[in-house]
């Protein structure tokens, strides 16, 4: 007990001796001050209250972890009870506040926003269902969140779109993303629009899907060009927005290199020591027919629009990483982290070998 008391006394002394500085103060556009306090870390208080819509998704879990580590109180709207349980331990007591919501319920959305000074909209859908089409989620839903955020006086809105968002795209997914951006900017003129490329990481639908179902990545003979980005880099860029009082505009966050699906399949094969897939390259009409037939099952399956996206190369716009103070990592730096689980027991500890023959330590 005596030792514990001394530790607590030492911690209090450090906190009491810490003096406030200019970087502890952030002034919002309405002149409201946000003052942080406490030693930096898990139990600090950043002064911000943040709402993250789409909090149970792939990108959100990493961003929420980074926000909570800074002492930010995070409101996490959820639809199903079990989908948000993993978020609770990411913050100190009272930092992670879960609230049930529905995308079509204005009152619930307003309640989730009532105390927030920053709102992140990460809601997205890779495939359509009978209840939610692309238009319902990416257009109407995004517009509803932006309008209500403006009505209740939220100072900042960060809307996450996609690198390939375009009103003229052959993909309904990309078209809905572009229309959603326009609706958000009309409802919330000072919104920050973020356009990340396809993301990889733990629990992703990129490396894991490529390892398990290479046939769907061989479409277009693997010649489609893509600029994948590490999910942790995107999460860090979004978390860094808290330190800026205002940052309106559209920002693109592509990966540092452009590569083809053919190279990525070779990368997966080299890193996992699994032989290249012998599955054939399906013609587009055949892939479309199979994808349409797969929509009759009750679990998420490859949709026709996803097949269409396999033929669309990523936009070659320049990245805006400097605006967020983040330097994106090359995909080879993290490939083994997410692909080791696909190795056999005999190959589990073997060195990492890349398609060009270079080898690194395991």
Automatic annotation (TrEMBL):
Name one cellular component (GO) term: mitochondrion
InterPro entries noted in UniProt: ComplexI_NDUFA9_subunit, NAD(P)-bd_dom, NAD(P)-bd_dom_sf
A Pfam entry, by short name: NAD_binding_10
Protein name per its UniProtKB record: NAD(P)-binding protein
Where in the numbering of this chain does the NAD(P)-binding domain appear? 54-203
From which organism does this entry originate? Coniophora puteana (strain RWD-64-598) (Brown rot fungus)
Extract one GO molecular function annotation from the record: protein-containing complex binding
